[in-house]
Amino acid sequence: MTPYWPLSITMASFSRLLGMGLLVSSSMVTADEGCDNASTQLALTECSAQAYQSVDGELNEAYQMLVSKLEASPATLEKLREAQRAWITFRDAECALESSGVEGGSAQPMIRNECLASLTKQRTEKLREHAHCEEGDLSCPR
Fold first, then answer.
1. Total domain count, the chain
2. Which residues have CB under 8 Å from 93's CB, separation 6+?
3. Which structural domain range is residue 67 located in?
């Protein structure tokens, strides 16, 4: 039986955490200034949670901006709400799947947070695109 060696998880997680760091605004000040030097699983998990909370705040701002734009069109606004509820369901299921490889382990919350942050950042960008469509773009919600 091969012994469990968490180094491969740590390296993969480090790579994800590094990539996620690029997604988070460079002006973000974390409650724990030690995220750049986090070395314990607890610290890495806390930092990934902070990063997710930050991008989730950005998502909420982008969503509210789009809601404001669509207030004059109740039917389109309802479609946005329906799409957002479906996206949340997808995001949660996708991140449960992605973190299932380390289910029950101490790295699972970190892997899940990293997934949540990554997908949330993508969704935020999409909502911002919808909110700032150029006139004549037929793919814009109106």
1. 1
2. none
3. 43-131
Question: What CATH number does the domain containing 95 carry?
Answer: 1.20.1270.180
- Alpha-carbon distance of 44 to 74, in angstroms, equals 43
Tens-level pLDDT at each residue, the chain (142 residues): 444 334 344 444 444 544 444 344 333 334 446 899 999 999 999 999 999 999 999 999 999 999 999 999 999 999 999 999 999 999 999 999 999 999 999 999 999 999 999 999 999 999 999 999 888 888 888 8
pTM for the model stands at: 0.74
The Cα–Cα gap between 7 and 32 comes to: 24
Q: Is residue 115 part of a domain?
A: yes
Structure tokens at 15: 């790579």
